[in-house]
Structure formats: structure tokens, C-alpha cells
Amino acid sequence: MKVLNSLLKVVNVILMGVLVLIFALPFVWMVSTSLKTLPETMIFPPEWIPAAPQWQNFMQAWNSGPFLHYFMNSVMISAGILLLQMITIIPAAYAFARFEFKGSGILFGLVMVTLMIPSQLIFLPVYLELSSWNLLNTHLGLILPFASSAFGIFLLRQSFKQVPNELIEAARLDKAKEWKIMIKLMIPMARPALITFGLFSFISHWNDYFWPLVMTTNETARTLPLGIAKIRETEGLTTWNVLMAGNLILVVPILIIFFFAQRSIIKAFVYNGVK
Amino acid sequence: MMSSTSSIWHKLRPYGMVTPALAVFGVFFIYPIFYMIYLSVFDWNFVSPTKDYVGLQNFSALLSDDEFRQVILNTTIYTVSTVLLTLSISLLLALWLNRSGAFYGFVQGAIFSPHIISLVSISLLWSWLMDPEYGLLNWVISLFGFGPLEWLSHPDTSLMSLILVAVWKGIGFNTLVFIAGLQSIPQSIYEAAALDRSKPWRTFMRLTLPMLSPTLFFLAIMSMIGSFQVFETIAIMTQGGPVNSTNTLVYYIYQYGFRFFKIGYASAAGVILLVIVGILTLIYFRLLSKKVHYR
């Protein structure tokens, strides 16, 4: 019985190793390829460690387009969206959590409907809308459609609701103004939810390819994911080494964030979704 | 005593607080939906100053178009396979990995990592892995005596290859949500079942699965809606080809709107997608209120 148990334990560990390989090996392969010469990418069986790391692949990828520009656009757009979202969702979530007002049920239902309907469904009319306001190819045009977030309101409302009533009553007795209660009392109490939402929002807009592709026709407001996808056109379809180097430029910032904030990120994406 | 102006202010205050957010939803969500429905009954090429009213002609043209029927079929196959595979594999993994400790935490983190990586990166990476001549995947399956496969470049395997990528990307997130669901089941119920000498399979079917059903339905509807809007992998890996074998709804709408400038026609396809998503959402809430076990 003891032997069987320890055998099972070994099998368990081996199977988990295989599982990790299935998810990690593609990324290892990406890193390995990004440091290879072009002939090295065609050798089979593959060499996992390149003979001489080709760091210039990264320079070649970076110089294949205005990458500093793409990078700055990505930062500005993701940060701009996050800032506007915070400004719009905090008061809305506070009102939905703490005030009783006529029509609040219907209005919150409206928020939930936008949560269920995917934004990719309506890109065509939004495009025409932005076009008629001359907002195509502008930062503002990429930011405004996401200036609020139904998911954020939903998440924040939950955590505002959990703040004990006594705390608010005590503050009101002290004649604290309502906006002061919101900023000085509620926001610190809801910090975990705010960080969670911040990570969620920043990562998903940093990664987004669809909206910048659809809403821009020239380079002025294009972002990093579009620049990376374009390397294939400028460097050729089979220069996998340069492509993977470019790919790493996009992946590494997110992986670094993930490494340091793994727990909060997983919480941000998973646990709050089901509550 | 409160003055009357301040009591009006108190009544209006919550409306003022929700206005900015609702304004954004109104302008960029609600209004576009109606605008799309409006556009779907016109023939318009975006540059022409006039829109020609054509009634339901766009819809009848869509439904009699073989290419569009293929797109609906592709989208259905893609969605059903992706959702079924992702959910069943994730549930198995969740039952297996639902343990605490640094080692299990590491494994959970590893399988979750594709979820936060941009779909652009994932698509490029898998295009390389699936390269018919120099891709790693053909080498790996050759070790087991299979292949070589053409993956993305043959209509028989292209859709399957996209499903594989979607399942690979989605498993980690779904597994962790399942684990969260498993952990919220009270331990005392299991102890009672153990006292009754309930067999593991029976405990799973009679206890775990019903208790997990809200999570299961949440994930099913989320992955279904997510699969219906697949775009990036198609745009980067296949462009809908070869011979239309991987074209799906959102990509089709994109093609007709932005390449062929048939705005009315593309909007009609958008309305059809809207109806499908709407029905799915309704089914979800119906099931949730009737069949699903609540804690």
C-alpha cells in the first residue's frame, strides 16, 4: 500500500510536469527562436539553445517600424482609458451601492445588459459614429468608447456594499460631506477591488488588437499589438526569429507584471468574475 | 432642518453620479445597437451621400448566400467544440489541481499565463509552431509517429487548428474559475457523504456537479459569447481561409464593412449575431433561474 501510494505521487508529479510543459514550452520556444539566426530556425531536431544569441533580432524588430511611437500610443491609450474609467465608475458604483433612487433598478439593469453584450458586435456603428465626429485616428477616438466599464461598476458596487453602514453613519454624524465620505472612506475600503479592476483594464487594453485595427487607418494612433503584427509585412513571412523577437517586446511587460502580481492578477481575472 | 434646495439636491445627487457612466454606455453601446439595426435595411457603401432603403433584402441575401451559411456553420463548429473541450478539460484539471501549496500554485499560474498574453502574440507564436515545414508541432507529433500535418494551410485541418489554440488559451482561466467554485462548496457536505459511504463517482454526480452548476453555466455562457466574437486569431493566422474554412461571424462582418464597404449588408450580419447572442443570454438567465442549484 505504501509503495503504491508513493508510486502514485511520482506519477502525479510527472503528469503535472507534462501539463506545465504544454503551457510553457510554446513560450520557451518563442524566446529560443527570438535569439536564433534564420538558418538556425530551420534545423531539426531543434536546437533549444542558440549557438550565439542574436540580440540584434530585437533591434531589427524594433526598427522595422516607429516602435517608440507605438509604445507611447499604447501607454497613453491604456492609461487614458483607465483614468476615465475610474472617474466614471467610482461615483456610479457608489450611487448604485448606497443610494435608493427611483429607476435605479432599471438603470443598473442597463449596465448589466452592456456587460453581457460583447463590444465586438457593434464596431461598425461605433466606427461610423467616430468617423462623423472626426475622431478616427485619434487617441481620443480609441479611449472614449471605453471611458466607462460595466464590469468595473459591477465589481466596485459589490465592495462598496460590504462597507459597514455604521462607518458611514458615524462619518455623516461628523458632518462629513458625501463626496468626502466617498473619497476618504469608501475608496480606501475598496482598494483591493480598485487594484483588481485596474490590472484587468490595463492588461486587456494593452493587449487589444481589434479596436485599434478597426478604428485607425494610419500610423498616428496605432498601438504596439498592431506594430508587432505588421512586422510580418515589413520583414517577410518566414523571418520567424525577428517576429518572435517583436512578439517578446509585447509580451515581456505583461509577463513582468504577472510575475510580481500573480496572485492579484489571478484574483482580478478569476475570483471576482464568479462572485 | 434641511432647506428645500438641499433636499432637491439630495434627490438629484445619485442621478448626477451615474450620469457620466450611463452617458458613455448610451453613446457607445445602446445607440450603436439601434443605429446598426437601422443601417441593416439600407444599401450603403459608406462614401455615397444617400442610403437606399432596401427593406429586409440584406437579410434574405445573407441567408441565401452559401458563403454566409458556411460562416455560420464554421462559427457554430468553432464555438461548440471550443466550449465543450475547454469546459470538460478544465473541469478535470480543476478536480486534479484543487489543492493548496506552492507547487500547485505554480502549476495553476503556469496554465493561467496564456490568458493574459495578447492574442496577437499567441496567434503569431502558434503560426510559427504550426508552420508545416519548420514548425515545432510537426516535429513533436513525428516523435509519436504522426504527421506531418498542414495545420492552418489545409481546409480540413485549419478550423481544428484554431480550436486547438483557443482551447490552449482558455483552459487556464476556466480551470481556476472551477477551482474557485470547488472551494466554495462547504466541506461539511462531503463529510456527510463520506459517512454515508457514497462512492466517489456518485458523490461527484450527486453533489459536486450540482453545487458547481452556477460556475458551469457562468463559464459556458462566457466562453460561448467569447467564441462568437473570435477575430484576432483568424485575422492573423488564416484571414478566413483557406477557401473560407475558418471565416467566422465577426471576421465576416469586418470583411464586408471594411474591405467591400457594404455597410448595410455587414450591419444585417451584425444584427443576426446580436440575435444569437441575445438568445444565448436569455437561455442563460432562464436556466439560471430554474434549473441551477443555488447555494
Automatic annotation (TrEMBL), chain A:
The keyword Transmembrane applies. Its main location: membrane. Residues 71-261 form the ABC transmembrane type-1 domain. This is Carbohydrate ABC transporter permease. The chain crosses the membrane at residues 7-29, 67-94, 106-128, 140-160, 181-203, 242-261. Keywords: Cell membrane, Membrane, Transmembrane, Transmembrane helix, Transport. It comes from Paenibacillus polygoni. InterPro entries: MetI-like (IPR000515), MetI-like_sf (IPR035906). PROSITE patterns: ABC_TM1 (PS50928). It holds the Pfam family BPD_transp_1. It is found in: Cell membrane. It is a multi-pass membrane protein. Belongs to the binding-protein-dependent transport system permease family. The keyword Membrane applies.
TrEMBL record, chain B:
SUPFAM superfamilies: MetI-like (SSF161098). PANTHER family: ABC TRANSPORTER PERMEASE PROTEIN, INNER MEMBRANE ABC TRANSPORTER PERMEASE PROTEIN YCJO. It is a multi-pass membrane protein. This is Sugar ABC transporter permease. Pfam families: BPD_transp_1 (PF00528). Keywords: Cell membrane, Membrane, Transmembrane, Transmembrane helix, Transport. InterPro entries: ABC_transporter_permease (IPR051393), MetI-like (IPR000515), MetI-like_sf (IPR035906). Belongs to the binding-protein-dependent transport system permease family. The chain crosses the membrane at residues 21-41, 77-97, 109-129, 159-182, 203-225, 263-285. It is found in: Cell membrane. Residues 72-284 form the ABC transmembrane type-1 domain. Coiled coil: none annotated. It comes from the Bacteria. Its main location: membrane.
